[in-house]
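ping. complex inputs:
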Amino acid sequence: MPNLTGQDEREEISHAIPYPTIRRMPAYHRYLKGLQSDGLAMVSCTRIAESLDLEPIQVRKDLAMTGTVGRPRIGYPVDALIGAIETVLGWDRWSEAFLVGAGNLGSAILGYRAFKAIGLNIVAAFDIDPRRVGKMIHDVPVLAMEKLANLARRMKIRIGVITVPAEAAEDAAKALVRGGIEAIWNFSPLALTGLHVGKDVIIENVSLASSLAVLIRRLGQTKAAQP
Amino acid sequence: MPNLTGQDEREEISHAIPYPTIRRMPAYHRYLKGLQSDGLAMVSCTRIAESLDLEPIQVRKDLAMTGTVGRPRIGYPVDALIGAIETVLGWDRWSEAFLVGAGNLGSAILGYRAFKAIGLNIVAAFDIDPRRVGKMIHDVPVLAMEKLANLARRMKIRIGVITVPAEAAEDAAKALVRGGIEAIWNFSPLALTGLHVGKDVIIENVSLASSLAVLIRRLGQTKAAQP
DNA sequence: TAGATTGTTAATCGATTAACAATC
DNA sequence: TAGATTGTTAATCGATTAACAATC
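pong. complex structure:
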């Protein structure tokens, strides 16, 4: 029965790939790139699983989401797989971004060349500290915060990266939103929410504290296990 | 019936808190600290949920894992909750750590004061670049890589932080393992596995690419949804 | 051919969400 | 007291894992 309302039509193109799968995709991509440069044309999920510490069945399920078909006994075509992953993750389309906070962390992100191959192209950095303004960091100019909003609108920037201390995070986010930015990649320890920036802004909080909490927990359990 | 074998006794002290809950704990902690400094004594899960963009029932379940009991109509005691979370996460016991790679990212981590309150105390940094050796970064000395293993054993260091480029990650990990380190917090783009360092070393990979992949995916879906 | 590997359907597992009685 | 909030048991949801036929 056709949907006559036109109201809740969802994009079937997305195939609704689960987020856990999305998160594993970059690791597959990196591994496959290695095989490619070694000249390997085909690879089995067993092999991938072994190298990446995953279950073969999980790799098979994940790869199936990309639409690439493998051949029994032979495996999957490496080149096709790489291309399919890049498409699924949207790495084929460049995403230009602004970065706020040109300190150590910001510089590290700017120098992280891998991002360029991964669909993130940071074209300008911003800082409130006048001593940093005017500099170039890894070929990216550092500009004054006042210029952010107008420039973002003019350049139609969609992604903002926040690498400022917790106290400055909310202001940074608001400046980005004023510039019409649609998604924020937040490295500050303050977890941003819809309350800070409005509901329609996509927020991805990189919580180092969460990651560390898991590490210390696992360490504690090991210790407890051995009397 | 009592377990007479003594073989598969598991530590019941851990209460098997699920990892998703562990990951949310730091956010609760940070929020509660804010309330505490505002002088609030009690807080309801409804309120916490609203501020952190979670469901009240999830907050209730998470807080229950800490063993803190709330009072109907009133809420949970803020001070007790903070203490309970710190205990659950092991933040009461300091964890001394070594860091490998004193570049931009390493400096950012060293300067991230929040970690000190969070159970991670980086006591020394190491680098292969002789120009960096001998310096102090945020009060932490940068030493030569050759000194790592011996010093780690002598100081009984359990945690290693890797902030080197992908090419150097495996060597850094191996140096840490030679020093008897039990857990590795890896910021390099190369996902480390048991194959690199042996099965009994705990590895926590911070994959920025995974996080970015999710962000770009969500951004793409938004775009697709609006025709 | 024999057998390793894929693709798919079903079973399991674990976390999230719902429901509701107990309680302050 | 009335009603908001907790604590707990049950239902739902979604991802992982298992099983196995199809296939090269």
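Residues 44-46, 56, 60-61, 64, 69-76 of chain A lie near DNA strand C (CB under 10 Å from a C1').
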